[in-house]
Amino acid sequence: MKTRTLVALAHPRPGGRRAHGGILATLGLALSVFASACAGGAPHTARPPAALTFGAEKRLGNANRNPSAPFLRYAPNGRLYAIWTEDDSTALAAARQPVAHHHGSGKTAPSPARVALMAWSADGGETWSAPKRVNIDSEAIQGEENGPKLAFGRDGKAYAVWSIPGEKGDKTRANIRFAREDAQGNFTPAQTLNEIKDSARFPIIERAADGSLLVAWIDRRADNPMPRSLYLKRIGPSGEPIAQSYKVGEGLCECCRLGMAFGDDGKSVYIVSRDVDRKQIRNHVVRKSTDGGRTFAPPLEISDDGWQVPFCPHSGPTIGQDARGYLHVTWFTLGRSPEQAGVYYAVSQDGGRSFAPRALVHANTAPDILHTTLAVASDGAVYFAWTNLDREKKAQVFVRALASDGKTWSPVQQISRARGNASRPVAALSDDRLHVAWTETDGETARVVLRSASLVR
Question: pTM for this one?
């Protein structure tokens, strides 16, 4: 099966309502309920495409161990892979504490011990292999925006990265862990990638054109001046570091995930992030490298949203590229006013030198922080998945598609029916199927849900 570009990232842990502490307390009054005014999205054409038809829900992981934080990716052999986390059932995890969200400062109750598990499907997500443990040690693997990620080598072997709290349990002073599949199909003992201890978070990993792996993360080895820096590390196919990590940017928002895409047969590398200036305005930027990720040009602002907030929103952007070389980016912002709050999209048709004016994918239905992702087909069709609140003020997952003409939108569809809340969807795309997975929380329990749709092209 030929697979298409996919991008997906970041995920919640179990543990009740997804409140955002100081952010929503500060902004709740400003975002008065305007659901009826915001029920629309980007303008529909006179004859929008038909809605996507999704199959029944599938569950990933052991339901008794609170699976959460899924990530999806197709491998070169056409199999769909998923990685997620679960409660560690070993004796080392017996004393784990109830899970707490880590918004705001991030310094909440210590994370419980979790395991990262990987499974694959050869039939488009209908059935799955037995899960394989990724991390050998018992660790407090982080979730939400900071969950584990996968990449694949040319030989189909998997590489995984994840983040664990620092030595004192501080989630804001974390470490990046890396493991790879060996010849027997098991994972090697994890190694820590950041040379400066307790300084790195929110890793992403992608395979470069030369077969090496690029790992990017948000770094806080220098606390002053704030905000954070962007670091890269290149790893060989056998898992050996090719060089020490190096700085390629600064001014990043502390707790919003990154996104990465390649162009020009790997010569161009694009990294998107939410940056923050001295006035606490948090807009999104793209940084471009034309030498395979060794150096980067200054950041280009994707959209001047003007969102000024003193707290990190824990909601980062997603980027993908189609066969024409167009770059597609989606993100969430509260903007300059309640009427501007929502999920947005922009496209660059000139290799990241400029972006078209943003388009609204879906407006906020109530005062809340939303999370969005996209998957891009080679012909330029874009599939979006995001969270928003339903009429009962529960977070649910919504989807819609944008045709390759860049003008024709499908209707907004709700595909989750969470009893509690659904959050942080991820997506994967093949020639004929779209897959969306997310975490649902209900009190102190969690589960990973997957739904798939056949594509008629």
Answer: 0.87
